[in-house]
Write a structure and sequence with these properties.
The complex is a heterodimer of chains A (461) and B (295). Chain A contains 21 helices and 15 strands. With 461 residues, chain A is α/β, with parallel strands linked by helices. The longest helix of chain A has 21 residues. Chain B is mainly α and 295 residues long. Chain B folds into 2 domains: 53 residues; 229 residues, MetI-like (MetI-like fold). Chain B has a two-stranded antiparallel sheet with strand order 1-2. Chain B starts with 6 loop residues before the first helix and ends with a helix. The chains are: A alpha/beta (461), B mainly alpha (295). The interface between A and B is large, with 40 and 33 residues.
Chain lengths: 461, 295
Amino acid sequence: MKLRKLTALFMTAAMALSLAACGAAPAATGTADAAPAAEAEAPASDDGGAAPAGSFSVDAITVNIWDNNQLAGLQEIADEWTATSGVKVNIDVIDWNNYWTLLEAGASGGEMPDVFWMHSNTAQMYMENDLILNLDDFIANDPNMDLGNYYEGIVELYNSDGHQYAIPKDHDTIALLYNQAIFDKYGVDTPTDDWTWEDVYEAAKAITEAGKADGVYGYAINTSNNQDGWYNIVYDYGAQVVTDDHKDTTIDSEEGKAGMEMMRKILTVAAPQDIVAETGTDSLFQSNLVGMITQGSWMINSFYTAESHDDYKWAMLPYADVNGNGSCDAGERWSCYNGLGWAAAADVEDPAACYSLIAHFCSKDMQVKQAELGVTMAGFKGVSEEFSNAFEGMDVSAFDRVEAEGSLYFRPYTRNTTVWEDAIGQTGAFLDAWQNPEDVELMATSCDNAAKIIRDAIANE
Amino acid sequence: MKKKKSPAQKKEALWGLAFVAPTMIGLTVLNFYPVFSTIWQSLCKTGDFGKGNTFIGLKNFQKLFADAEVWQSLWNTIKYAIIEVPFSIAIALMLAVFLNRKMRGRSIYRTIFFIPMVCAPAAVAMVWRWLYNQQFGLINNLFHVSVAWISDPKIAWISIGVIGVWSIIGYNMVLFLAGLQEIPRDFYEAAQIDGATGLQQFWNITVPLLSPTTFFIVQTRVIGALTVFDLMFMVMDKMNVALPKVQSIVYLFYQYSFTNGNKGMGAAVVMILVVFIMIVTILLQQVEKRFVYHN
């Protein structure tokens, strides 16, 4: 009898406990400023902050990223840290769309991953709400960490009210990707560094007309190819998708409309939007059905490992000869650049361990290694060459050259970028123009609509 | 007059409470709290990460009612239900009747038809996405046509509906099979002696006696169809031109709540859906009184 009672009591207690555990995740936010200085002074070793084994209070750190292409390389770098720190690093890949849904749910419920990537689209919102660990004290106490070594735009992006919340992981630029075999087959000259967008149009036209029977198109771009696509044309023609103060846009200006008019012209000889939406520009290109696309440096690996990678060549992004003098002058060739940041959740169990891992990822040696492994271009300045050499047999120096010969602008962002970023690519904005590229007026109207969407979104932030 | 409880009764009542507590706590935490929280959020301009909500009354609803996209999405959802519910029920009923006879390979057929139900909805959607693909899709290549199954606004909603029907047939069929086995064989024997044909038996015995099962399926499927989300989300690209004509009301909710981070508007969208489902359910209950034959 007594035993039965005891068992019943035990079981009820167990049930109550398990229920309590579900709701027990404390919303420990707002404590970022109070990062204990004592912990921050964890002895730093040569490679940038990795402490000797056994000095951390956790056994494992969870890391969330969204790019499967980078997993192997990053795991290798993380394992080196594990070897000195004794803390295991588990990297989970979650695709881009779900990554943000999950991170936001985690932030609201107090269950964020320990260390994760931050992006310009949402960084401001996370920093303002103190959901990411304030790294100020750790950086100040780490003799190996000098933020001056990293790309300024990225450092600044992850800085809010003078506090640093993330350290640059990488940076990326854009280049033109073309399929040599398609150009050869239809007898069209291949892209060079001197090409303007007009040249792209002419080549795309020639390929699309000659390739009709084979279902081959000269060019492919969707409205969602913004950072790696039409944004760059807008900047080439002298407009800005988001102005420098992040409070306005000039996409509906004369210059912006001139840029999008160029885009429209190319669209008339590009793959139709419905095909691009169903199959995707990358899949079309890798099926050898498209002559040219523009792509970001973070995607190189996917093309490097593709079946017909021998035919794939990179050229510098074309420019817009706005002043008509026949050569590329300052401010006529723009490439978008962006950089991810390594950040940690504000409520992690062991902030020192998380910082140590972040510092390891961002240390010069590991940034070089990241470039050598071909994971991405470094966030650390001056190691671009290693990246250019990472892909044996494929010349990817175009991504580096555009930095030296062209101008870079940071990926347009506002406080809540996603609200307008998707909307301007959908019905009611540029998707209309993409559907009917022959209609000149429609593209101009789309520019006006897009500008209104961006301004309304900023007003609501 | 109050009766005083004996210690044993008290103890029993206490234990009773202890044992229903897990369920009650679970319901409160997982169902009741979210329901009221959603109602509250629909009346708020919500802050980031669930902090700093400010009460704004019915402004979210005002904005939604003035937005053509909301009505379009509601209409899209209804159109989807109009395809999914009748077709999945009619086909499943036919299959169930055929598979209720003694025949070779009966269990194999039953299994085959039930398999879509076992597959992960996301996997199902991905397979169909490639079947429908305009350039490389099996359907277009098999019939040598070039139809934009999921990009043409005129037919995309039907294409999505077809996936819905295909996925749910097996489940409906199993329910019908259970219902069929409840019908006593005597009715059919008597009808046969009186010279009724198979079709007459079907309409005069099977259909009326199966009506409670049919009603149950109609009701659950209507609610299921009105809350559809995964098919549109997985099959159609965000930049698909047909999306505005296909996206369901839950898709819109997802868009507001999770993509745009506007929980208040998302909650308001869901409240509209809840009220709509309530109205439909009340109508269905009226229909039940009139058409369902209870043994």
